[in-house]
Amino acid sequence: MSDTPVTDDRDPAAVVTGMIAQVLDLAQTWPRWNGVPLPADDRVYTPHKAIRRVTDHLIDHLAEIEARLAGVPTIPDRWHASATTTAADLAEFTPLDLDEARSRLTRLSQIFEVRLRLLSEVELDHRDSDAWSIRQVAFHLEESLYYAEAVGRLP
User: Fold this and answer.
1) Can you give the pLDDT of all 155 residues of the chain as single tens digits?
2) How far apart are CA 51 and CA 86, in angstroms?
C-alpha cells in the first residue's frame, strides 16, 4: 500500500463502494476454497483473512473520519493486520460465511456512501497538518482490494 494516496476526479464514495463491490464479487467464489492459505508477497491469505482485513480497514478509517469531523482525537488502531493469520482465518469459508460478509460489507458500503456524499469538496480536501484529507483516505481504502485479490477468483 502506498504512502500518500493518489486521487483523481472519481467520486470518493464511488471509490469506496466500488472497492467493496469488487471484494464481494471475488468472494462469491470463496466457498470453493480448498483450505490451503494463498501466498501473496511475504504473507499468506485466506478468504476469512481477506474479509477481516477489508472490514477492519474500513472500520478503522470510518472511525478516523468520524472522529475528525467531530473534532475529537482519533483512537490509534491496534489491529494485528495481515502479518497475523488467526485460527479463525483458517476456517472453511462457507456460503453462510459469504452471506455474513455480504451483510457486513454492504452495510459498511452504505455508511461510507452516505457519509462521503454529505461532505462538501472543502471538507473532503481539508487536511490537518500532515494527516491525509478525507478524499485521500477514501482513495487509500481502494487499496484494500489487495487482500481480496490475494485470494482471487477461485475456480
Assistant:
1) 448 899 999 999 999 999 999 999 999 999 999 999 999 999 999 999 999 999 999 999 999 999 999 999 999 888 788 889 999 999 999 999 999 999 999 999 999 999 999 999 999 999 988 899 999 999 999 999 999 999 999 99
2) 13
